[in-house]
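Slack export, channel: ligand-projects

TW: morning all. Re-posting the request from yesterday since it got buried. We need the structure predicted with the small molecule present, not the apo form. The ligand is pyridoxal-5'-phosphate; the SMILES is in the block with the sequence. No rush, but it would help planning for next week.
GE: picking it up
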Amino acid sequence: MFYTSTRDTSVKVTAAEAITNGISKEGGLYVPCEIPSVNREFLVQLAQLDYIGRAKAILSLYLTDFTDAELDYCVGGAYKEGKFSSPEVAPTVELEHGVSILELWHGPTCAFKDMALQLLPYLLTTSAKKTADGKQIVILVATSGDTGKAALEGFKDVENTNVLVFYPNDGVSAMQKLQMCTQEGANVSVCAIQGNFDDAQTSVKEIFTSDAVKAKLAEHNMMFSSANSINWGRLVPQIVYYFSTYCDLLNQRKIELGEKINVVVPTGNFGNILAAYYAREMGLPIKKLVCASNANNVLTEFIESGFYNKDRDFYTTISPSMDILVSSNLERLLFHLSGENDVFVKDCMQSLFKDGHYTVDKSVYEGIRGIFEGGYCDDDATKATIGKLFKEKNYLCDTHTAVAVTVYENYLKKTGDDTICVIASTASPYKFSPAVLEAVGSKDAVGDDGFEMMQSLHTITGVPIPEPLAAIQNKPVRFDKLAQRNEMTDVVLDMLGIR
Ligand SMILES: *Cc1c(COP(=O)(O)O)cnc(C)c1O
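GE: finished. pasting the full token output, ligand included:
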């Protein structure tokens, strides 16, 4: 199996090269040249395996340049007992008849990013052994919260890697900041920067592509790679849990073999839902993919009209991981739905960059309409859903998941499509305690002591506080550096000890 680029189909690389490089040199994203397909017998076999077995079976279809032993090492390490608080890793829990929740937040940082970022370090170091002749891999991350912590936790003490995280000083929640600044591990560094997330992201990109910095790294036998969701190594682990949830529904006798399900995903950068699209293309019986957004509803409009327009108001919401106007992974969908038309994709991305918008042609639009539904809701509706689910179903969910549930309920009302449905749940409610506390009707949701709020939420709901979040209270702060943007290059070199 080879991979090509969404912007240049003459590119042909192995999985290991795609994962080590992160992004293709002309700026396109790596995509599989052919999407592998599976049959019903495969699903029957898969349903008998545990999560590690399921992950290996799916990954082996995509990472054909990895040996059997390498795959065992990678998935065995990522999902081994004790790393996730649920023995099933990503359990499928029934909410009500016909609707189940796929809980993706039982990992060490309590957000769904762990599903991929626990595995990526193994995939990356194994890939680098094949392609980067023993170079030390330096992972640079600009984060608005969840990705930074998940990358730190995934890469901590992984041999031959360094992970450096920059976050906007005023742009992350108190809990997210604490999670990062108390991070353990000998190969990790964290630094706040003066500015917002876009400033952090722009500076990181500049450093990432600076020839001077790259040369300096090369002198010390180091190279940059990326841990954000444009890396194929982050996408492929996410395909696994859509197969896994289907197997769970089969084993729970909620569906018959071959029966189609709907899947609802709270969406930001379009990575999670794109993984569901790949699963569907591989033959997993999925009818509709429902793309749920918050007030930043650029994707809802796109799915309804074929018009993508990032020139619009940006809203800061209580589901911050979905506050995004440029969904990078959509580029991969455009590539597949346009019949792998690299020129078309390049044109779309160019006009997005130049004019802030693009429109797809009729055939791509029809392709999207056949598979996707879009919907969005605001913060009030999100909170109302959290309160209602807790009161009526005794199920406590976070703000991102509540967006998905709300959008699903609206979809059901509008279409009457009561196909068995799985809703992806992307974070523990304790990661967003202030909003969740308010939603379940507490008057204590003021002040900013994250730990007190977690405690109040626990007292009111009885839902256990995840151990990794509770443990932070007793951990020393290791990183308290605040840098200006123009100091970041020096900070990177200092962190690596090569200035
Ligand atoms: C990252 C994230 C999302 C969005 O996922 P995408 O793959 O970027 O669409 C949703 N919810 C939470 C909690 C997240 O951390």
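GE: first-pass observations. The mean pLDDT is 94. The two ends are 40 Å apart (CA to CA).
TW: perfect, thank you
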